[in-house]
Design goal:
The chain is built from 9 helices and 4 strands; from the N terminus they run ααααααααββββα. By secondary structure, the chain is of the alpha+beta class. Strands 1, 2, 3 and 4 form a 4-stranded antiparallel sheet that branches. A hairpin with a 2-residue loop joins strand 3 and strand 4. Helix 1 packs antiparallel against helix 6, helix 2 (29-50) crosses helix 7 (116-133) and helix 6 crosses helix 7 (116-133). The longest helix has 31 residues, at 192-222. The termini are far apart.
C-alpha cells in the first residue's frame, strides 16, 4: 500500500484500517466521521477553484460524483486498502461501503497526524484528476431517468417507493424501488438518496436494453 503521505503516528493509519466488525470499541468510525468532513471541504474548495464559471447546481453534481461511495471505493482500491483493511465478514455489496468508509477514515487519520493542510493536499492530489476527467458537469442517474421518461412516456415521471432499511444502526442499508414505462428496478445504498440513485441507474439499464431489443425487432421486420 502506497499513500501520498507518510505517517508520523502509524497507529492512526492502523486504526483507520480497522473496521467495527473486528473491534467494536477501537475502530475507524470516528476517523471516518472527521475524514468525511475534511474530504467534503477539500473537494468543494477544489471545484470552486477549478470551475469558476459554473453554477452551484453544476458544482453540486460534480461534488456528488467525487464523494460518492463508488468513487471512494475505487480510490481505496487504487491504494490497495482492500489488502490492508481489517474487517469482519462482508457481502460483495457491503465491501464497497466498507472500503469507502476506510478511505474517509484514512483522510481523517492524515488530518490528525499532519493537520488540515496536509489532508487537503492529499485529497487534491488524488481527486484533482478525477474532477478534471469530466468536461461537463455529470447528471445524476435520477435526473437522467426523469428526462428520459418524460421524453418517451408523454411527460410521465418515475415513481419511487418508500425505502426499506436493513443492517445495523451504525451501518444501515436502504433499498428503494423505482417504476417507469412498465418496468421496475431496485437499488441499495447507505442512505435513501444513494439507494434511489442506484435504483434509477438500474432502471436506465433495463430501459436501454428494452429499447435496443425493440430496435432489433424493427430492423428484422424491415428486412
Amino acid at each position: 500500500m502506497k499513500l501520498y503521505y507518510k505517517f508520523k503516528d502509524k497507529s492512526l493509519l492502523e486504526l483507520a484500517l480497522t473496521q467495527r466488525g473486528i473491534n467494536s470499541i477501537r475502530n475507524n468510525e470516528r476517523l471516518e466521521f472527521v475524514g468525511d468532513r475534511v474530504l467534503g471541504l477539500s473537494v468543494s474548495a477544489m471545484l470552486y477553484a477549478m470551475y469558476p464559471h459554473e453554477s452551484e447546481g453544476e458544482l453540486a453534481r460534480r461534488y456528488a460524483v467525487l464523494v460518492s461511495t463508488e468513487t471512494l471505493a475505487d480510490v481505496a482500491k487504487s491504494f490497495e486498502l482492500n489488502k490492508e483493511l481489517r474487517h469482519g465478514h462482508a457481502t460483495a455489496g457491503r465491501t464497497r461501503h466498507i472500503l469507502a468508509n476506510a478511505m474517509e477514515a484514512v483522510i481523517g487519520a492524515i488530518f490528525f497526524d499532519g493537520g488540515f493542510d496536509n489532508a487537503q493536499r492529499f485529497v487534491c492530489s488524488v481527486w484533482h484528476d478525477l474532477a478534471a476527467a469530466e468536461l461537463r458537469p455529470p447528471k445524476d442517474a435520477k435526473t437522467t431517468l426523469q428526462e428520459y421518461v418524460q421524453k418517451n412516456d408523454n411527460g410521465a415521471l418515475p415513481e419511487y417507493s418508500s425505502a426499506e432499511q436493513t443492517g445495523e444502526d451504525h451501518m444501515p442499508v436502504f433499498t428503494v424501488t423505482v417504476t417507469a414505462m412498465g418496468e421496475s428496478a431496485s437499488g441499495s445504498g447507505s442512505s435513501k438518496k444513494n439507494a434511489s440513485t442506484a435504483a434509477a441507474a438500474e432502471l436506465l439499464k433495463i430501459l436501454a436494453t428494452k429499447k435496443l431489443a425493440g430496435q432489433n425487432v424493427a430492423e428484422k421486420k424491415d428486412k
